[in-house]
Amino acid sequence: MTLIKRVVGAVVGLGVVGGVGFLAYAWYPSIAPVSPPAASSFSPEAIHRGQLVAAAGYCAECHTRTDNGGGPRMAGDYKMETPFGDIFSSNITPDPETGIGNWSEAAFKRAMNLGIARDGSQLYPAFPFDHFTKVSDQDVSDLYAYLMSQPAIHRAPRENTVPFPINIRLIGQGFWKLLFFSPGRYRNDPAHDAEWNRGAYLAEGDAHCGACHTPRNALGAEKKSALYDGNVIDGWIAPPLNEHNPTPVVWTEDELFKYLRHGVAPLHGSAAGPMNPIPHEFLSELPESDVRAIAHYYADVDHAAQREGQNQAAVATAMDRSKANLIGPQTDPDARLYQGACAACHYNAGPAPVPGRPELALNNALWLDEPNNLFMVMLHGIGAREGQDGIAMPSFYTGLSDHDMARIAAYLRRTRTNLPPWTDLEKKAAKMRATLKPPPINASH
Ligand code: HEC
Ligand code: HEC
Ligand code: HEC
After folding, report:
1. Which of 29, 66, 243, 376 is the most exposed place for a label (fewest CB within 10 A)?
2. Residue 8: what pLDDT?
3. Residue 180 and residue 163: Cα distance in Å, rounded?
4. 320: containing domain
5. How far is CA 145 from CA 40, 133, 139, 193, 271, in A?
């Protein structure tokens, strides 16, 4: 055999062996369908516990259609726009034809543990199985009991628009998992106490905070090297949750708890945009101790104990910056624009922020590398059921032009922070405006 033939032979041989190995890794058998289990076959305790697991995993958020008038709860067809095309979530009600009614508990468990559907096909990581794999067997079993005892809804989702060849799930998803997925239940870290471990279990698994707060690589996988460094989601920036969080006041356990429990942290601001439903519709169902545990965990992730000594001075500086810019006649036209549009609500004269008048000098909207959140808040407003109970901020969608929004953003960044100015503000304002389709009719609902 010539050398060249030998080399080619070796490469082909390796390819065949690799291909067989890959198939063994990526191919899964179908699990036999079952007739839908009766709700009465589950104990009310299991169903109740499962309801909490569903709340902590926001299943209803991604499995309920919201566009075009919306759809029934858990019946899927929620549109997720990804760089690889639109993916529509599955119906997870117990309907046997269009939902998961004929999935055995083993099939459901395999989907949560490994991201494999009952028929053996690979699921896209838009379904955050890379986090759900950490959920305990007991919690998955309770979750199954809860889902199977919900009303069955007959309704198929729309077709995905993921193009060829990424839509060949066996190969595309198989390789993705080979590269980025490490399956396995959460293991307690003995270096930490029970509360920390409970918080980490929820945050890293069911509550999948990293799915929005960790940047992703070109193939859509979370970058392990940049854990919690922040990411853009539906136009909004989910800020870093580690020591790279740029807001002047360090997120302490107390601030985190208030934010995650009530949607508002007095020394930071409100949970708006994609973060909004998390405290209000989901974490609010959990026992307070679970939310406290998540706060406890992130106060460690961002090293609050070592850094929170700076907080008092940071609040004082922010209040001084605000006061200095609100007193006396304003000759700066940008300041006058702010006075007219915003200052009636956003002014603070005392030593500390007043609830109901968020101190912008402390808010992530002014401190992030990009002005996305500031523009999004101006465009959307904050509904009365978002943020603080019953307290709304009007939408400026029609009230302010892109040019005006850009001037207010530049002014606030210049006077309330010590960070470099943002660039191309008017263009960015227009880009954010274009993400609102259709525009809000009445932001104070
Ligand atoms: C971030 C959005 C998101 C969240 C949160 C989410 N899912 Fe999904 N889920 C999806 C998408 C999208 C799919 C479809 C994936 C695909 O087509 O490959 C899916 C698919 C599934 C499937 C496969 C169904 C089938 O017919 O193949 C199951 C089971 C499932 N999800 C259960 C759950 C449960 C239980 C929860 C809550 C613990 C949950 N999901 C939370 C987005 C989500
Ligand atoms: C669906 C995406 C998404 C998920 C899931 C999510 N977040 Fe967020 N989060 C965001 C966005 C977007 C913001 C910015 C909201 C704003 O500025 O009002 C945010 C803001 C925050 C903030 C405020 C940061 C700051 O500096 O202002 C904290 C703290 C936070 N999230 C914690 C969490 C925790 C803990 C979890 C898991 C329990 C979580 N988030 C899950 C999208 C998400
Ligand atoms: C009518 C009163 C009012 C006006 C006018 C107003 N706001 Fe607000 N704003 C609020 C309230 C109230 C909140 C907190 C809402 C909540 O938590 O429910 C808020 C919150 C915010 C936040 C923080 C959002 C978060 O995620 O934490 C920003 C940023 C903001 N406003 C910017 C502005 C800007 C810029 C203007 C002027 C263009 C403005 N606001 C005008 C009342 C107002």
Report:
1. 29
2. 55
3. 21
4. 194-445
5. 10, 18, 10, 30, 31
Annotated ligand binding at 208? The verdict is no
Looking at the fold, whether 173 and 316 belong to one and the same domain comes out as no
Q: Could you tell me what percent of the chain has a pLDDT over 90?
A: 80
Q: List, for residues 393-426, the tens digit of each pLDDT value.
A: 999 999 999 999 999 999 999 999 999 999 999 9
Residue 316 domain-assigned? yes
The token duo for 30 is 């179908």
CA atoms within 13 A on the CB side of 257: 12
- Can you tell me whether residue 244 is helix, strand or coil? coil
| Total structural domains within the chain | 2
- Is 76 part of any domain? yes
What's the CA gap between 106 and 93, in Å, rounded? Answer: 17
- Find the CATH number of the domain harbouring 84: 1.10.760
Q: Are residues 68 and 159 in the same domain?
A: yes
Higher pLDDT, 127 or 172: 127
pLDDT of residue 443: 46
- The pLDDT of residue 83 is 85
380 in a known ligand binding site? no
The answer to whether the beta carbons of residues 56 and 151 sit under 8 Å apart is no
Q: How far is the CA of 58 from the centre of ligand 1 (A)?
A: 10
Which residues is 81 bridged to in the sheet? 86
Distance 213 CA to ligand 2 centre (A): 7
Domain termination residue (choose one: 152, 180, 208): 180
Classify residue 1: in a domain, yes or no: no
With cut-offs at 50, 70 and 90, classify the pLDDT of residue 12: low
Around Cβ 172, how many Cβ atoms within 10 Å? Answer: 19
80-132 tens-digit pLDDT = 998 889 999 999 999 999 999 999 999 999 999 999 999 999 999 999 999 99
Q: How far is the CA of 90 from the centre of ligand 1 (A)?
A: 6
Identify the residues whose C-beta falls under 6 Å from ligand 2.
Answer: 203, 207-209, 211-213, 233, 236, 238-239, 241, 245, 247, 251, 256, 259-260, 268-275, 278, 294, 298, 364, 373
